[in-house]
Design brief:
By secondary structure, the chain is mainly beta. β3 and β4 form a beta hairpin. Helix content is 9%, strand content 40%. The longest helix is centred in the N-terminal third of the chain and has 24 residues.
Length: 318
Amino acid sequence: MAKIFKTIEQKLTQAADEIVEQLERTPSLPDLPNELLDIDLDFDIDTNTSPPGRFRYPLGLTVNQEGNIVVTDFDNHRIQILKWDGKFQKQIKCKLKSQVGNNWLSIRPMDVAVSDDGKYYITDEANEQIVVTTDKKVSATFGRDARLQPRGIALSKDGYIVVTDWWGGRYCVRKYTTSGEQVGVYGLPGADEQPIFDMPLFLAVNSRNQILVANQGRHCIHVLDWNGKFLFAFADRQSGDQGYINGPTGIDLDSEDNVYVCDPNRKRVVKFNCKGRYMSEIDLSHELERPYAIVISKDKRKLAFTEFQGQRVRIVDI
C-alpha cells in the first residue's frame, strides 16, 4: 500500500512540474493601453455582478442589426442584449488594459450606438472615453485626450459619431469619425455668449443629418444642423402644456423622423413630428416609475424604456 501511495505522489509531483513548466513557457499579455481583456458571453467572474437578464442601473438603449434591444448595464460593467419579448439573449463585458501599471479597467457604459457593420460604440463614463467593440473583440478606444465625461451617443447614416460631453461643466456635443478623429465641438459658448446646453443627455440624428439633443437642464429638445448651427428648439414652454417636458432624458426616432421623448417627471412619452410639433403622448404612470432612455422597435409596434431607479427595462405595446 505504501508503494502505491508513493507512486501516486510521484505522478502528481511530475504533473505539477509539467504544469509549472508550461506556464513559464506561456508568453504574458503585452502591456498595451486599451488592450482587450474580457468579452464574456457566458461566464461571469465578478461575484457582485447581477445574473444575465438582471440589471444594476440600466441607462442607455438602442437596437442592433437584428432588431434586438441593446441595454447599457452601468453598474454591472456590461452591455446586455434582449429580445422584444424581454428574454435575455447575451451579454458583452469589456475590460481594458490600463496605461499605468498592470491594472485592468472595467467600463461603466452610459449609452450605446450600433453601426451597420455590427460595431458597438459605448460611452465609458468611468474611463472618460468611447469604446468600440464587436461582440467578440474590442477594436478601439478614443476621446481620452479630451478628458471626456461622455453621456449620450448616436451615429449618422454616413458614419459619424456624436457624443454629449459634461466635462468640467462645459457642456457640449462632440463629433467624431469612426476612426476616432474629432471633427467638431458644438455648444461651447464664446466669451460673451450664454451656453446652449445644460446637462445634455441622450441624442439622435435624423435622416437629414440634424442632431436632436435632449437638453435636460434647459427643459427642451435642441436641434442643430450637421455643422452645429442651432436651428430650433421644441418641447419647451412654447410648446404648450401638452408638449412641454420638464427635464427631457431619452430620445429616439422612427423611420419617418418622428421624435419620441421621455418625460420622467410626468411619467409619459411624448411624440412630436420632425418639425417639433406635438402629436400625441403615451401615459406610463401605471407602467413605470420614471422612464429614462427609450428605443422604438423597427416595426414601430413596441417601445422599450430603462428605469434605472427601479433597476429594470420595460417593454410596452404602442
